[in-house]
């Protein structure tokens, strides 16, 4: 039976019998059912199902007063709990279910806050190193290091470092000098006695000694001592071969210098430098270079004579060109040795004529309470810049954190959320049944 | 002088009263729907103990979901939707237990307990219907639901419900008129798991 050939479909007829049709169509269906035999047959079939199914009866549920009682108690408890629901449960159960968007935003905010905290804690560690490096850079910029390299010392002193206290070193040095003076006097007396017996020999040259002193002085007024140092150098005709000054703010100032002082003025200069402040360390040494100088003078004399003989040969003798060239090469070699020895002689005599003082001048630093602080505008500007950098760093940190840990967090959330939901559901059911 | 009879409150009013803190309303709803819901489960599950358990489970779920209740539809439809969800969950668990533990639930044969010959004959005929057709037929015949309620409950178009119901009734007629087989082993509790 097709709707195209029959005005009423079987489903429509069934709906009419079940009372599911509108009143406008009901009259038509009732009239059609009385007239159409096919529809009557279908109606008979459909009406057969319901009485047959009605024979399928089930035993009624036994009265379960215990469950009914528990249900009543649970209902009463649920009603009271709904009134006294805590804020936490309200947020999680009520707010979360009714406002899933806000609860999701809250969860994301919590994750972001956690990420911020982790990034902040992880970023705190490299800060000290960075601060130290920055301070070093600032200190290097602010320090007005003056390095004057006028002449590099080439002495090969064998210093007798005095490790004892300065007073003991001074006493030992004075004793040694007195002993040396006494020895020289006895030697001079013996020579005078022998001069009376023998004809006068040529006078021996005085000993050549290269003196060097090391001083560490702590002063109270660094700037004043700096000016005094310049005055001392000018008064004793000395100079600074090397000078380095560190004048960092909010820190002790210091100065390292290598002073060259005429040998005759050494004692007075040392005394003047000691008067600048407290002596922390002092050492003096003297290198006997007499023999070295005598050898150098002798070799220089021989070389000059050799050069003169070679010059004479070149002028007086004739021969092969190769011989002449060989003589000229020999003259050039000897000339180079002569010039090298002359430079060594000058340097050696300069070391003897000018003593070396290695001065380490330090300031006795006192922290100042009244140190000038930057202006409010500068501080505000610095705060704004620091805040901008902090915000940028935190934003980058959050982004990096989400990029690094976000996928993992989603995976773990997807893994554990069903388990948590299941456990909570079981717990709720158990509590209600109990 | 006779006392004016008071009209019983509707199901929806009782449910709203419970959501506003009246536990007696839920008790009244339980008394009204205890037998219908028990029959709902009893016709779909062979084990009466499990049917009783699912009945309790349904009202506990109603208790838990009371705060979210909104009277947008009939309370009856709402309650049967809960029952249907619990029934499906029960069937999924039964399939899971049978698949993983290899021991299906021991279901007592209803024919040996409280079934008559006609009852068993009808039950076996219904068990041979298509799962969806069977569910629509049972909801219409025993729960007395309208086509619209069934469509809402099963999430099906209204015309689909009507055509499937007609098909189920026709098939049932044919099955009941056919000679009964010697051994019918299918049972509605296991066949209906696909619903």
What is the subunit arrangement here? heterodimer
Structural category of chain A is: alpha+beta
Q: What proportion of the residues of chain B form beta strands (DSSP E)? A: under 5%
- Within CATH, the superfamily of the largest domain in chain B carries the name RNA polymerase sigma factor, region 2, helix turn helix motif
CATH class of the largest domain in chain B: Mainly Alpha
Mean pLDDT of chain A: 76
Order of helices and strands of chain A: HHHHHHHHEHEEHEHHEH
Summarize the structure.
By secondary structure, chain A is α+β, with helices and mostly antiparallel strands.
Structure in words:
The complex is a heterodimer of chains A (434) and B (195). With 434 residues, chain A is an alpha+beta fold. Chain A folds into 3 domains: 10-49, no CATH class; 86-124 and 379-434, no CATH class; 142-196 and 205-363, no CATH class. Chain A is 66% helix and 11% strand. Chain A has a 5-stranded mixed sheet. The longest helix of chain A is centred in the C-terminal third of the chain and has 58 residues, at 376-433. The radius of gyration of chain A is 55 Å and the shape is elongated. Chain B is mostly helical and 195 residues long. Chain B has helices at 11-19, 23-42, 48-64, 75-101, 117-127, 131-141, 147-154, 158-177, 188-191. In chain B, helix 1 (11-19) packs across helix 2, helix 2 (23-42) runs antiparallel to helix 3 (48-64) and helix 4 (75-101) crosses helix 7. Chain B starts with 10 loop residues before the first helix and ends with a helix. Chain A binds chain B through residues 10-11, 14-15, 18, 20, 45-46, 48-50, 52-62, 64, 67-68, 71-72, 74-76, 78-79, 82-83, 94, 97, 428-429, 432-433, and chain B through 18, 21-24, 26-27, 30-31, 34-35, 38-39, 42-43, 48, 52, 55-56, 59-60, 63-64, 66-68, 114, 116, 118-119, 122-123, 126, 137, 140-142, 146-147, 159, 162-163, 165-166, 169-170, 172-173, 176.
